[in-house]
Amino acid sequence: MESTDRAADHSTTTAPLTIDSLIDNVLAGPPHLGRTRLIGIDGPAGSGKSTLAASLQARAEARGLNTYVIHMDDLYDGWAGAVRGFGLLRDHVLQRIADGREGRYRRYDWNSGAYAELHVVPITVDLLIVEGVTSCDREAGPWQSLRLWIETSNEVRLDRGIERDGEALRDEWLEWMRWERDHFAEQATRSRAHVIVDGNPTVPHDPALEIIPKSVALPPHDSAAS
C-alpha cells in the first residue's frame, strides 16, 4: 500500500469551507481501509474534535452514507492510557477491517475505571470517522483518506475542559496538555493534516455545514495521495 502519510503543502485561507466539500474529496479517492474510507480528526483536547465529528457524521448520513464514529476517549485506558488506546484502535479496529473482518473494541468506562461493553464496527461501513488525540498517529496514515487537525488557544481549551469535567480535574487536564504537546511534536501530527481547522472561529459561518480552515492541502481528486 502506498503511504499517504506525508507532510502536506498547505495554502493559507480563512474562507468558510463546506463539510460537503470534504466528503466530496474523500469520496473522489479510493478507499484505503477495505471498502471503507477513513477520516481522522486530531488536535489538542478541548479544541472541538467531537463537535466536528458530529457535523461530519450528520452531513454524511444525510447523503446516504453508512457512517460510524469512534471517539478515542472510549479507547483510552484512563488519563495515562492514550498510547494504549491507539494500539487498540490500530490492532482491533483498523487492521481487522483492512483484513476483511469486523472491527471490535470495548468502551472504557471512566467512572468504573475499566473497559465495559463490546462495540462492533462492520466492514460494510462506508465512512469511518475517528476523533480524538492519537487518531492521526503515523501508523493510521496509510489507511486514512483525510486527516483533519483542529486547534484553538490553551486558555479556551482549558476553560472548555473544566466546564465539562469539573474543577477537581484541573491537574489532570494540565498534565494531559503537557503530554499531548510532546506527543504531537513527536508525531508531527499538525503538519501531516490535510486541513487545519480553527476551533474557535470569529468568521461568520454555519457550523452545521461549514468549517473555518486556517490552511488547506486536500488530496487531489483523482487520487487519495497527498
Question: What strand line-up does the widest sheet have?
Answer: 1-11-9-8-3-7-4
So what's the overall shape? globular
The portion of residues forming beta strands comes to 15-25%
Number of distinct beta strands: 11
Could you list the spans in which at least 5 consecutive residues all have pLDDT below 50?
none
Decide which structural class fits the backbone: alpha/beta
- Cα-atom radius of gyration: 17 Å
N-end to C-end Cα span: 14 Å
Order of helices and strands: EEHEHEHEEEEHHHEEE
Number of helices: 6
The whole-number mean of residue pLDDT values reads 93
Main β-sheet, in a few words?
Answer: 7 strands, mixed
Share of helix, binned: 25-40%
Question: What does this protein look like?
Answer:
- With 226 residues, the protein is of the alpha/beta class.
- 33% of the residues lie in helices and 23% in strands.
- It is built from 6 helices and 11 strands.
- It has helices at 19-28, 49-62, 82-98, 154-165, 170-187, 189-192; strands at 11-12, 17-18, 37-42, 67-71, 103-109, 114-121, 127-131, 144-151, 195-198, 210-211, 213-216.
- The strands form 3 sheets. It has a 7-stranded mixed sheet.
- A hairpin with a 4-residue loop joins β5 (103-109) and β6.
- α4 (154-165) crosses α5 (170-187).
- The longest helix is centred in the last third of the chain and has 18 residues, at 170-187.
- The radius of gyration is 17 Å and the shape is globular.
- It starts with 10 loop residues before the first strand and ends in a 10-residue tail after the last strand.
- The mean pLDDT is 93.
